[in-house]
Every structure is written in structure tokens, then in C-alpha cells.
Amino acid sequence: MGKTLTNIALIGAAIAVNVVPGVGQAISGAIVGLGGGTFAALGVAQTVVGALQVGLTIAGIQAATGIIMGSPSLPKPDTTSTALKTSRPPRVSGYGISRLYGAYILFETATDGTAVDVYAIHDGQLTEIVRWYLADDAVTLAGNIVQAGVDGRYGSGKLRLYWTTGLTPGSPFSAVTAKLPGIWTANHRGDGVVLAALLSTPVKSEDFLDIYPNGVPVASMVAKWQKCPDLWAADPTDESQWTWTENCIRHLAHYLLVREGADYATKIAPTLAYWRAAQDVCDEDIALKAGGTEKRWRSCLSHTHTQKHGDIKAAMLATCDGWMAPRADGALVVYAGKYYAPTVSIGSDEIVAYEWNGVGVDDDEAVNYITCSYVSADHDYNTVECDPWTDEDDISRRGQELTESLDPQVPSWGQVRRLAKRRMQRANALYRGTVTTNVAGRKVRGQRYINLHIEEAGSVFYSGPAEITAITRNMQTGGVTFSWVAASPNIDAWNPATEEGSPAASGDRVAPQPLTAPAITSATPELSADGVTAQIRMIVSGPDREDLTWFLRWKLSSETIWNEAQNGDVDPGASVELLSTLVPTNSSIDVAVSYQVGDGRVSPWSATETVSTSTATLAPLPPTDFSAIGGAGEANLSWRNPSATFAFIRVYRGPTADFGDASLISGDIVGGLGEVMSLDDTGLSASTYYYFLRSFNASAIPSSVVGPQSAVVT
């Protein structure tokens, strides 16, 4: 091998002098290294080879044959989590089952106050709608009408949803045209695009938070998205035979053919056996610890049409730990994540140079803690974390957690943990390196796993299965240069009971419970002393909460219009006391109460109670301005009638200042409210007389006694 390295160094020196300026210092180092021993020569010579490869690529002498491996770093479209308002939103397409919001293409208010929102959600025809969401609430539809939630939100037929399926030609929304004529017409079809329209009817301000507790909601849909080719079909390009699937490899084939425009005849057909095998790997059943099975590799990936093809393909391969590379003829070889026994071997007959690392993985590159995320149907199709994949022994040995996040767009926590297991094995493999081959080594092209044997001077540095992670043609040797990492034949061993882990906790978000209606325990009229005004005092039972705001409404029993008012600060308790605003007297009054909690929700109104504000039982005010003046044989009396609840006056006379000694001397004296009245008491003998007055209401209920007023008669 030392001779081989010497030859490489000499060839490299010649190329460096004639082709690649600026690497003389590196070559000098190589020559010194060769003189110093095999190990030094190996490291420095490989530095030269690395430098030469960069220079040769720049010079256009070396051609690349790149491998695409899974990389979950593709950002999800913004519309996986929110709706967009932008003048030129990117198109979005999806695979499998996922939840997508849309980009607003119309948001307007109709003349009748209806809020009209139209969204462009998905480019391409969907297969089936699974469910609808308004904000974070899953809703059900009866036709196009949104049904009320458990707490009444979205109720009373106030919201309607309309949609298209992405067909070409599309169907215009007649309901939108009816609300916004001239703005939305029959020509607004949205050909080839899934559209959704939400019509939100206006409501009274007091009902707004009941129907729209979070404001006018944003719609989103969960759907089975695009149909994909089946690589086992007689003609995978026959779109009429495409079906919906969660199979990652079928998604990749669809993307290549439809989005990237790859030629099936040259890119896929020559390697169809590889594609079919990879498709079958994805569809293999994996046992679950709860019983039953799931498919090995599923995807729910969505992407924008502005993201790079390479990034999207890498993200698709990440969902199945996939591997894809072109063969010499340009056809694409693809593997899903499953180890297979290598059929190609590389050894001393093919190896020209190598770089070998077998002394462990530095902390900068090792991984012993992978945070795992997946898209959970149990969490409204949001991305959540499940149990991480960890190597506790390595954490203990290194004394630290070397963390990495894994966030592929997959619908299963077990799947993301299987991916994490493969990721950690690859990152922490003890043996890895780079190999440059002669022409015979070209046979590794299109192979993910090979048998690799590295031996020098009788010392075996590595012998076993290896995974090729990168490869380039080497014009200098006529072969290839590839990076490799030791592969584990046992990587696919899986014990669901110990390795599947647990999903993200569900049910940790407490759904708002419907508010119960309060109850009126008692309702009593409180009349003013003059009987002109009245209020109603109520004892009400309800929740004992600090955040309650109470509302009271009343109306005449014969009418339909309620008068509502908010009560002031009320001390919290299971029973509270409320006082109405002024209500009419001598009327039948209906009253009801409700309360609002701190998050804005309002309870149902209580059962209606009816209260009479009759003044029939209210004692009238006493008369005023009472006077008595004596004369010859008579006394002249004068007073002012009460101003309310008054029917008549009675006059009493007695020999003493004690009302108990007095006798009634008049009949029922009728007069106007507040009228000044008089009475002449005649035929009296000379003496001192004492007079008293009392007013009475229509029910003959008396007021307090007024008097005495004395009169001296002569």
C-alpha cells in the first residue's frame, strides 16, 4: 500500500504542478510524510488527494455521481400551521394524510355583514377529505353547515363551508358569488387547485363570543392528498390507475414524474426492480406493542413548489431512511431503509487509496440523544414529540448528552424511533472512511451496501459490510471515490415492547366544559317610598369563581324586548345578590340572569322569573302641610295630598293629643295627587280640639298618622 500511496503522490504532484496551482505545500508535506512512515504517509497523502479532488473538480476534469440520502431538514410549508395572507403565496402539495391551512385569495365582508374568506389550499387533486377544523376545533358538517360545538360555538347555522377537490376545470362557489357579485364570478374556478370558502354570518354583539369565541375562525382541512403511481402496475405512468397511498417510495416516484418532470423511460424503467423492491419494503408490516401492525415506512409530507427539488427528495427519503443514486446509464437506483446482504465486494484488488477512522467518534460528530417528532392524528395533526431515542451507556461514558433533533414528516411515533435508531447507528459507527478505487471499483455504483475489506501489510483495518454515503467519479484512477460507514446487519431488529416507546401524551389540553345556567333563588320587588319607581332584588346561585361578571335583563311580560345591564362588582360566592335597574311599577316584570367567565364565554340565561311591581300593598305617603285653625264654632283644616299611591284622605278629631282618643269625622275625601285640600269642621262648642290625618291607597292600606294639629274654638 505504501507503493500505491507513493504512486498517488507522484501523480498528484504532476497534476498539481500543471493543473492545480497552490497545492505545492501540501505535496511537500506528502513527500515528507512518505519518508517518515506508512501511517504518516497515509494521512498526508489523503490530504493531498482531498485537495486534488477539489482542484480537479474546479478544473472540470472530474464528474460527480451524487447520492441523495434522507435529510429531514426540509422546512414544512407555513400552511401546515397557519393561513397566509401574502400577495403571492407559494403553491403547496401534500402526500399521505395531513392537515393544511390555505393562503387567503379573498377576504371580504358582504353588504349583509357576512365575512367571506376563500383559501387556496393545495395544488393538485385531493383524494378524500378526512375532517375540517375551524381554528383548533374539529367540526362536523351537515351538508355545508357547520354544526355547533359542545359549548354552542359555531352554532345556529351561522357558518358554512364550501370546497373544491382540485379538479380541472374547477367549480366556482355560487354561495360566494351570491354574497359578492362582481367580485367573485363564475370564472373563479381554481382549476387544479383545492379551494375552500368559509362564510361567517354576523351576530349580535352579546352573542358574538358564544358563536365566535376566538373571533372569526380560520378554516383548515385534513385530507388524503395526491394519488401516486404504483410501481407494480402494468404502466406506472397511467394516471387513471394511480391510487392514494402513504408509501414513501410511491410519493418519491410521483414527485419525480410530476413535479420534477423526470423521464420515466430513462430514469425509472431501467431500474424498476429496485423501485418495486423499495416500495415493498415500505409496505412491510411492523408489529406494534399494543397489538396489530403498521406499515414500515409511511409519509405525510407536504412541500411548497418553491423549495429545491434536491431538498424535497431528501426529505422524502428521510421518511424511510432512503437512499437514491444514479447508475452509470443515468437511471436512478433507490433503496428504502432496510439492510440487505451485499452482493458487491471491494478489496485490495480494487482499492487504490483509502482513509480509515477506527478510533471512535468525536463529541463533535457523535449523537447519543435524538429528540423524535412526528405528525399526530391524536393531536389534531400537529407535530409533537414522543419518547427520545437515547444511548444511556454512551451518555454515561461521555458525561454529556449529544443531542440532535429528528423531525421527518411521518405519522407514527414508532416509525420516527426506528428512523432514530438507524440515524444513531450511522452517526456512532466506530469505523468509517473514504476509499478510492481503480476502474474495477466502478461496480459499487448503484449499491448502498457493499462488503469492504481494507488490508495493508498484513494488517486488516476493516472487513465487513459498509454503507456508501457519498460517491464521485475519479478521473485520475478511472474508478470512483466513495465515503463509507460501517453497517450493522442487525439494524432492523426491532422489539416493540422495549423500543417502540410511548407517543406524545394526549388529553393534556382540557376542553372547555359547557357553562351551566345560573338559577334565581328569589326575586323580590323593592318599591320606592312614594311608589313611583321599583327595582328587583334577586338572590342567584351560580359557580363560585373569581372571574365572573354578572348580567341581568328584564322586560315587561307583555313585550319581547329585553333590557340588559351588567351588574357592578359582585363578591364571588355560590350565592350572589343582584339588583336590577329601575323598572316600571304596577307591572308584571320578567327577569333572568347570566354570567361571563374570564375567557369571554357567557353562560346560558337562567330560567325566567316573573315579578309583580304592584303598589297595591304599598302604604301611601302621609299627607303634608297639615294645619288646623280655630274660629267661632268651627275649625278650618288644610293639607296637601301625597304625590303617589294615594286614593283618599280621612280626618280624625279627638279631645286629647292621643290618636287613640280620636274619632273619624269625615268620609273618604278624594283629591288629586299633591293637591292642596281643606275641610271646615263646624257646629263646635268652645274648646280645644286635636285633629289627625291619614292617607289611604286603593286597597285601603293607610299611611302613618299625621298630627295632631290643635285648634282653639270659641
Automatic annotation (TrEMBL):
<protein>
    <recommendedName>
        <fullName>Tip attachment protein J domain-containing protein</fullName>
    </recommendedName>
</protein>
<dbReference type="InterPro" id="IPR013783">
    <property type="entry name" value="Ig-like_fold"/>
</dbReference>
